[in-house]
Design a protein that fits this description.
The chain is an alpha+beta fold and 290 residues long. The protein has helices spanning 5-11, 20-32, 41-48, 92-100, 118-123, 157-167, 173-181, 219-230, 248-256, and strands at 14-17, 53-58, 61-70, 75-83, 108-113, 127-137, 149-151, 186-192, 195-204, 209-216, 239-244, 260-269, 281-283. It has 2 domains: 5-124, Aminopeptidase (3-Layer(aba) Sandwich); 134-283, 3-Layer(aba) Sandwich (Aminopeptidase). The longest helix has 13 residues, at 20-32.
Length: 290
């Protein structure tokens, strides 16, 4: 019997870890899908686990992708699950998934699912934890920068990385170091009596700017950081902030600064998540890498 087009196409797919210079095309797909990637994000993302970025190819054409980034012995994060437009529904995404997900081993895997795919991820063993809401808008002016809010320097790195570990399910010091200093990124840290009580980063994106992460001990500290990060923007610039839905104080902050909810994803996990403090998370770093 002649094979169906789906079987034949999926059977010809070659999936392997993709180097950084091959991943820029995938980032272009995310822009086309409305994900609004940050400019240059992939340079920091890919270096976190270069073996965890998988692309499927038909001949010399890249047609599918997924990243499975191992952060620790216990935790991985899945993102960039995409198939090129015009080739969907032919089994290419599933074949890429099956080749890539074993990279995580026995780790708990987290991801942010678009609502239309939640049922698909459930069938793969993921369970929903909460929604993540993207708030976007032109920030209304806040208070003048607080004296406890400072530009980040190399001297702050160790303390910021330790603070980040309280807010994120794994130690990601090397990623934090890249993220704080990446071209175009502006980072601010909030200090009280010399101790880090929050930090945030803003970066240019395909459209406007994105803030992430925004981690803080209190709503007041989060407000001070948000205002410091947006103080130098043009009034016409839009900013996006991805907020875990249970964090009511973050939603209040976003609304007070003129941002409104535009879209949402569903945070899902395959198993127990290493502990992190959700009360300090006023904005996640990214939907692609957690």
């Amino acid at each position: 019997m002649r094979p169906t087009p789906t079987t034949a196409t999926a059977g010809q797919l070659k999936v392997s870890a993709a180097p950084l210079d091959h991943w820029h095309e995938i980032v272009g797909w995310t822009a086309d899908e409305g994900w609004n990637p940050g400019d240059g994000d992939i340079t920091s993302f890919h270096a976190t686990d270069p073996a965890g970025f998988f692309a499927g190819r038909l001949g010399d054409r890249t047609v599918s992708a997924v990243s499975v980034v191992n952060y620790s012995a216990d935790y991985a994060f899945l993102g960039f699950y995409l198939v090129a437009p015009g080739l969907r529904g032919q089994g290419l995404g599933l074949a890429t998934w099956r080749a890539a997900v074993p990279h995580a081993g026995a780790r708990t895997i987290g991801l942010d699912a678009v609502p239309a795919q939640e049922a698909t991820y459930r069938r793969a063993g993921f369970l929903p934890a909460h929604d993540t809401l993207r708030y976007t808008g032109r920030p209304t002016p806040g208070r003048p920068p607080a004296p406890d809010t400072h530009p980040v320097t190399a001297a702050h790195l160790d303390a910021i990385a330790a603070y980040d570990r309280r807010c994120f399910p794994a130690d990601r010091r090397e990623f934090v170091a890249r993220w704080l200093t990446a071209p175009g990124h502006t980072a601010r840290v909030h200090l009280r009596d010399g101790e880090v009580t929050g930090y945030g980063v803003i970066r240019p994106a395909h459209s406007g700017y994105r803030i992430g992460p925004l981690f803080a001990d209190t709503p007041g500290t989060a407000e001070a950081l948000f205002d410091a990060l947006t103080a130098q923007l043009d009034p016409a610039d839009e900013v996006s902030l991805d907020i875990p839905e249970p964090q009511a104080a973050a939603r209040t902050l976003a609304t007070a600064r003129g941002l409104t909810p535009r879209s949402h994803t569903v945070r899902m996990y395959t198993g127990p998540v290493p502990p992190a403090d959700p009360d300090r998370t006023f904005g996640v770093t990214s939907l692609e890498l957690g």
